[in-house]
Amino acid sequence: MYSIIDVETTGGKFNEEGITEIAIYKFDGNNIIDQFISLVNPDKPVQPFVQQLTGINDKMLVNAPKFYQIAKRILEITDNTILVAHNSSFDYRMLKTEFDRLGYNYKISQLCTVNLSKKLIPAMDSYKLGNLVKSLGISISNRHRASGDALATVELFKILLVKDIGKEILNKLIIKNDTIIKNKWIDLLKNLENKVGIYYFYNSERKIIYIGKSKAIKNRVNQHLTGSSNKSLKIQLEISNISHETTGNELIALIKEYNEINSHKPKFNKLLKSKVKKFGLEVFESIDKLKFLRISHFNDSINFLETYSSLKVANNKLSFFSKKYNLEQNNSEDNNLKINQIIKDLSFPFPNMMLIDKGRNIDEKSVILIKDNKYQGYGYFTLNYQINNIEILESLISKSDNTCESELIIINYLKKNKVEKIINIGELI
Predict the structure, then answer these.
(1) How far is residue 72's CA from residue 94's CA, in Å, rounded to a whole number?
(2) pLDDT digits 0-9 by tens, 6-52
(3) pLDDT at position 200, please?
(4) Rg (CA), the chain
(5) E strands, 101-156, where?
(6) 388: which residues sit within 8 A by CB, 6+ positions away?
(7) How many CA atoms lie within 13 A of 388 on its CB side?
(8) Number of C-alpha atoms within 13 angstroms, CB side, residue 81?
């Protein structure tokens, strides 16, 4: 993860300057995922030549926040990242100077796009930001303003990432705050793909110690290897090898992650405990055919609408459904209709269906099979393969346990996300 930064300053004597504007774009290697832009009141005048260059004057900064007021936000957005800037030594020095004035020792690893450009794009007439991006066909607006220069640096960095055949940038990623992580991890990262799927961490005994899911596996694994949280540091001490499996799409990754964690029970997947099924929401029908909702202790024999890890969460969800669907306290035929709607909203679109989505490569599609409202499994087929036979379809899929949880994962996913096709296969059954 990278923090691509540009700062504008007051000018003046060395280490006496103040920041007048800052722009930070948090970049995951593909997209900007967060940003922070602000003028800053430096409590000192802006030098005349700087005013002329940037257009930032003293009057503009009177009501701007002072550095101490934005320091926390800067720490948050740059945490566990590599600072990237055009002439990064200057931007880093200014940040460190401001933090030093607050009594805080700010440290962050750096990548300089000037130095990288000289190595990866040699023989350019000029490596000044304005001249360089113009030569590369990168548009730049608001030149000499923090946001404009930082955005231009983002586009430049994208080009450098593509040209980084020798893994100059990758090697830097494995250095965090002057701590060198095991050299073998560089080779391990090289073998990972930046695609959606799941990844496995192993210890020296080849035992799985952590399983994760990500839309960009390499980027996520790198966060683990460079992180400074207690969990990251513990994993770093034990990790010996890494493997991964691409899934083509996030839904299959979610299903596979849950099933793999349940199967292997890795020591660092402590979030699994919060997903233990203790209670469930079920529909109960009385003798006179009236329906009502109730919370019950989890039992594999019951077809729950949803499952929960605690009674508090279960009761809160029951209250939510009662209010949302305006359920009456006294059961009635009208309640039956409302509960039928709840069942429909918490069920698959069709009792027998295929979910078709992206595969692991361009010539492949994935398929998830639902039969009689039960999850059967998932598989992959080539684009020229016609699925029109339920027996053939069932032979393609990989079946798994934890079908109840997998069904809930699919239902919840479809509420918020789209797949390429949902095919009603009732006629094939």
Answers:
(1) 16
(2) 999 998 877 788 999 999 999 887 789 999 999 999 999 999 888 88
(3) 94
(4) 28
(5) 110-112
(6) 428
(7) 3
(8) 22
Strand, helix or coil for residue 11: coil
Q: What is the rounded CA–CA span in Å between residue 128 and residue 142?
A: 16
Q: What is the pLDDT of residue 392?
A: 66
Neighbours of 392 (CB within 10 A): 12
Cβ 325 vs Cβ 343: under 8 Å: no
Cα(38)–Cα(24) distance, integer angstroms? 9
Phi/psi for 315 (5° steps) reads -65, -40
Q: Could you read off the pLDDT of 208-263 as tens digits, one per residue? A: 999 999 999 998 998 888 766 778 878 888 888 898 999 999 999 999 998 889 88
Q: Of 68, 69, 85, 66, which is closest to residue 5 (Cα–Cα)?
A: 85
Q: How far apart are the first and last CA of the chain?
A: 48
- How far apart CA 381 and CA 317 sit, in angstroms, is 39
Contact 341, 321 (CB under 8 A): no
Alpha carbons within 13 angstroms on the beta-carbon side of residue 231 total 9
Beta partners for residue 280, in sequence order: 296, 307
Dist. CA 269–CA 205, nearest whole Å: 18
Rounded Cα distance, 94 and 89, in Å? 9
Angstrom distances, CA of residue 43 to CA of 75, 93, 144: 21, 18, 21
Using the predicted structure, report yes or no on whether residue 177 has a pLDDT greater than 50: no
Count of C-beta atoms within a 10 Å radius of residue 360: 19
Please report the pLDDT score of residue 374 as a whole number. 86
50 Cβ contact list (under 8 Å, min separation 6)? 8, 9, 10, 11, 20, 56
By the 8 A CB rule, do 8 and 91 touch? no
- The highest-confidence range among 63-77, 152-166, 386-400, by mean pLDDT, is 63-77
Q: How far is CA 22 from the centre of its chain?
A: 25
Q: How many residues does the chain have?
A: 429
